[in-house]
Amino acid sequence: MNDQKTTKHTVTVTNNATGQALELPVYTGTHGTPVVDTRSMHSKMGMFTYDPGFKSTASCSSEITYIDGDAGVLLYRGYPIEELAEKSCYLEVCYLLLYGELPTATQFDEFRQMITMHTMVNEGLKDFMRGFRHDAHPMSILVGVVGALGSFFHDSLDIHDPRHQEISAHRLIAKMPTIAAASFRYSRGEPPVYPRNKYCYAENFLNMMFSYPTYKYEVDPDHSRVLDKLLILHADHEQNASTSTVRLAGSSLANPFAAISAGIGALWGPAHGGANEAVIKMLEQIGHPREIARYVERAKDKDDPFRLMGFGHRVYKNYDPRAKLIRIEAHALLAKHGRLGPLFETALELERIALEDEYFLERKLYPNVDFYSGLIYRSIGIPTSMFTVLFAMARTIGWIAQWKEMINDPERVIGRPRQLYVGPAQRSFHPRLERGHIPGETGCAGRKHRCSHGHEWPGDKNGQRKAKGEGCDDC
Ligand code: CMC
């Protein structure tokens, strides 16, 4: 993998206090911003680099996904997201991300067969789920259940064995829809639905979400098609917060189920995958298009914690290409069904107003993948609490592909950032009774002190212990 990394230039860092200069190699990948290799800075210069939030730091080299945030480009293994969304299907994209190439027809059939074989979950997991409160958020169930999966597969947890890596990947891709749908059914007090091999990936998930023993559920082909497309659009996004979490957790050689459970936790936050749920809540809070201007003003006010959810991105400084495609899908649904509801109208108007506003233009804040996805999920009947679960289900392939790449990277080391320590300077410990009181504290007058023999005596009138050496009356 690292053969792709070429060094043509160097950068010299000079310590202006001492004049010491250090020449550092610069690597250029296939596309994108070159990176400076700062690994020798500590040993040669006695300094670390400082970059909270990794705004300027590449944590690894990767062959999987490429984003050009300024141009609004997203490639999976070199293929533009627009082409994959139009011409491929989610399972084929899973194969591409996992193995690096698109499958032949035979390879695809074998892969689909393999995934289908693994869709069931151990019956013991049902008991595990019963331990959650009846009204648990499906994301909290997902974090727990995926972490617990490792305990069912002792036979294949050798993370260095390529076959074990592959089986774990297949199991995760296959079981995620089953677990995701079961987490929803459980939170509703409804019986889980078993997977059925006759369905494709998205159809199977919809069937497990919405079918009941009491009536026949027909999967709407429009719904499974749009869901499949959304899964493709969410499948990977290089080193975002959850993927970096998976890599970091996995770098300690934890099993992939534990690492991906950590990633699901990181995804849940509203600054990341939880934004799709937060967008709907925001649109509901705004309520009516006439209120939009007021909320846009609030989003610009630094003293107000309110932000426009579904807007802005660390990497995209242009329209998120995923959001562009999802917006088209939303319009297609609108054309077919006539109306996507008042929330869609509020979303369109909010986007229009924000994109004409100097604040958003200056900061290059555009709608991201989460802005319209919730509206589509909602239009196909998915409840709001499941939106981030769907993101996790789609992203599982990205996490497992990135985990596998990390484990097999010859440059892999445990992820262990450094810090700039700004706490107290070194100081000596004093026993509790010698520390006196914080000014204003009432003290411990009248409270008992205890000597090392266990004898007690009262504090003096100031609440202090007796003078050193006096001890208790019996000692
Ligand atoms: N509403 C209002 N102001 C914003 C927003 C927003 N949604 N996003 C960024 N800004 C402002 C921010 O206050 C800052 O202003 P200033 O320069 O005056 O201090 C400037 O834009 C740069 O923002 P930042 O917070 O430094 O950017 P970041 O790269 O650290 O954060 C982000 C990126 C996605 C966390 C942020 O844009 C955000 O909180 N957006 C809303 C949540 C959201 O939609 N998240 C989903 C991200 S896409 C799905 C995924 O892949 O996770």
What would your notes on this structure say?
The protein is 45% helix and 7% strand. Helix 6 (138-149) packs antiparallel against helix 7, helix 6 (138-149) packs antiparallel against helix 11 (256-267) and helix 10 (241-251) runs antiparallel to helix 11 (256-267). The longest helix is centred in the middle third of the chain and has 26 residues, at 162-187. It has helices at residues 41-45, 81-87, 90-99, 105-117, 124-130, 138-149, 162-187, 201-210, 221-233, 241-251, 256-267, 275-286, 292-300, 321-337, 342-354, 358-362, 369-379, 387-407; strands at 6-14, 21-28, 35-36, 65-68, 73-76, 79-80, 448-450, 456-458. Strand 7 (448-450) and strand 8 form a beta hairpin. It is mostly helical. The protein is built from 18 helices and eight strands. The protein has two domains: 6-58, Rubrerythrin, domain 2; 69-414, Citrate Synthase, domain 1, CATH 1.10.580.10. The protein has a three-stranded antiparallel sheet. It has a three-stranded antiparallel sheet with strand order 4-5-6. Strands 7-8 form a two-stranded antiparallel sheet.
List the helices and strands and how they pair.
Blueprint: E1 6-14, E2 21-28, E3 35-36, H1 41-45, E4 65-68, E5 73-76, E6 79-80, H2 81-87, H3 90-99, H4 105-117, H5 124-130, H6 138-149, H7 162-187, H8 201-210, H9 221-233, H10 241-251, H11 256-267, H12 275-286, H13 292-300, H14 321-337, H15 342-354, H16 358-362, H17 369-379, H18 387-407, E7 448-450, E8 456-458
Antiparallel strand pairs: 1-2, 2-3, 4-5, 5-6, 7-8
Helix pairs in contact: 2-9, 3-18, 4-7, 6-7, 6-11, 7-8, 7-18, 8-9, 9-17, 9-18, 10-11, 10-18, 11-18, 12-17, 14-17
The structure holds carboxymethyl coenzyme *A (CMC).
